[in-house]
Amino acid sequence: MQTPSPDASTREKLRFLWVSYIRQQKRTLLWAIFFGGIAAATAGFGIPYMMEHVFPVVFGKDPLPEGVEAFLRQYFASEDLPDVTLWAAAAMLPLVMMVRGMAAFMNVFLLSKAGLRILENLRLAVFSRLQELPLAYHERFKQGELISRVIHNTQFLQSGMLTIMNDVVIQPLTLVAAMTYLVVAALNSEQVPVLLVNMVVATLCIPIIKKVGSAMLKKMRDMMSGLGDITATVQENLSAQRDVRAFNMEAQQEETFLGQIRRMMTALFRMTVCSQALTPVIEILSAVALAYALYMGCSHGLTLEQFTAIALALYYCYDPIKRLGTVHNQYKLTLTLVDSLLGVLSAKDETPEPERPVPLKHPRGEVRFEHVNFAYVADNPVLRDVDVHVPAGQIVALVGPSGSGKTTFINLLCRFYDVVDGSVKIDGVDVRDVSRKDRTEAVGLVSQHPVMFHTTIKENIRMGRQDATDEEVFRAGALASVNEFTEQHADGYEREIGEGGEGLSGGQRQRVSIARAFLKNAPILILDEATASLDMTSEARIQASLNELAKGHTTFVIAHRFSTIRMAHRILVFESGRIVADGSHEELYASSTLYRDLYDKQIMHAGKEAAV
Ligand SMILES: Nc1ncnc2c1ncn2[C@@H]1O[C@H](COP(=O)(O)OP(=O)(O)OP(=O)(O)O)[C@@H](O)[C@H]1O
């Protein structure tokens, strides 16, 4: 079933939730309803019934029903009957409560079980969707907001759904049972006005519940947005601790955080006040209705038992109304949370998987850009009419001033974004027709800021190819000079590195990342400033490894250092989104002023570095 957008009708959204997540739990839910029915009937009907019909017998006010008396006489002597009746009646109370308690427990247990499964699947779906959605989607949101959706919103949704599920079955059934008893009792004791007044009062509760619900909804939205801001601030702050300290931003960060916490807490406080206001309002209304029943009962000769039974039935009517009010409000809040998740689940994939992917078996690595135009933001072109053919195995350096479009060129080759015009082809196949799996297998990437995970160095390298053996991992590590720093540590390749690569220098992280590329051995290799964080000795060593790795692979190097440029067969010079020169170093040095300037600046820079 197609995922509805947050703007779809509630009916569509509920149908989607039912078909995609809830239906699988149908059996558990049906059992939950069954037990809910038993719990409701024992409370709403059973207890008032005992008040009116059982206790008067015990207290000797009413005779035993004939059938029961005949039954008991078969087993007990006449003089024992009052005692037996008393015991039986006394035993009935815990028995009824036991049935109610066990049925209510099973109801909650089964609903919770189903609810947790539903939430688990929903959470996984949102997380998986975030993996599929293109970079462009991620760039549109603050990371903290997405984290907040996956963690907090699903958590709220989980507790909201449990509140709803716990009450949505049992309370209406209790209400129906109690109402049935009330109608019968009121008609039998000719107390129709009591019934009518209670119906009017119960109806009055509805607009109050709705009003409270919409107030809570507003506060809930404020609170969710506040929580997103807080998560974003914490996430941003923790990942930029070095800069926070370097620029003395601690106080400013604390102030921002405090402001956000206060805003969120105020919204949360107001939401709690709203939700708590509902209970006393409904209790006051129900007390008015009960007082009227008392007045009418006394003035129209109602017996104490009749009145007590009606009062109990009234309690079992208003209690579910009160709880259903909470359920209604919770339902509204839950829909808002569902909307925030549907926002992710239904987000348009701007780089969708092809319906019939063209297989890319044993790719050679030939790359072709055909008259490519691209813009991140409409009417703001970043690549203009880029038309270039790179035969398999060629090493190509991309050079050009900052912002000229080199990374964007690579982004399109990896299909992180789709071209606006023209096409990007690998081995003659448009990347839009290739499955994500084939595409990622064809391209290896060593990025400027390699991502490290909180695990061992060995496992970090293995991310290049999950099924690689330890030997293959060590070989790749050796080729990328990872050995040099693993050998200095007792744990070697088993050394755990911190989240984000803490414990490794920038250069060491790059070596791990290069080892991943060695391990992956993809036909197309992208080196994005791959040697930027290396000192000159390491750079020279890694450069030799890269030269080795690049052999037989189509390699694109975004290079600022002339040592990297030197390894290239061919250089593409970018300027304002166009390729303005294309050729070997010698050709370009002679023909392109821009290239000559860039190269000379590099030489000067490298000379200064060497001197230092
Ligand atoms: N995600 C994005 N959204 C909007 N504009 C972007 C985005 N990424 C890059 N740009 C813009 O596109 C243009 C080209 O950027 P690109 O990163 O391709 O340049 P570059 O040549 O790799 O620069 P550098 O050498 O500084 O890394 C720049 O003007 C940049 O501001």
UniProtKB/TrEMBL annotation:
Quote the SUPFAM superfamilies the UniProt record gives.
ABC transporter transmembrane region, P-loop containing nucleoside triphosphate hydrolases
Instruction: List the CDD domains hit by this protein, alphabetically.
Output: ABC_6TM_MsbA_like
User: InterPro entries annotated for this entry?
Assistant: AAA+_ATPase, ABC1_TM_dom, ABC1_TM_sf, ABC_transporter-like_ATP-bd, ABC_transporter-like_CS, P-loop_NTPase, Type_1_exporter
One GO MF annotation is:
ABC-type transporter activity
| Principal cellular location given in the protein's record | membrane
* Record-annotated ABC transporter domain positions: 367-601
Q: Topology with regard to the membrane?
A: Multi-pass membrane protein
Q: Which PANTHER family match?
A: ATP-BINDING CASSETTE SUB-FAMILY B (PTHR24221), ATP-BINDING CASSETTE SUB-FAMILY B MEMBER 6 (PTHR24221:SF654)
UniProt protein name? Abc transporter transmembrane region
Q: Which organism is it from?
A: Akkermansia glycaniphila
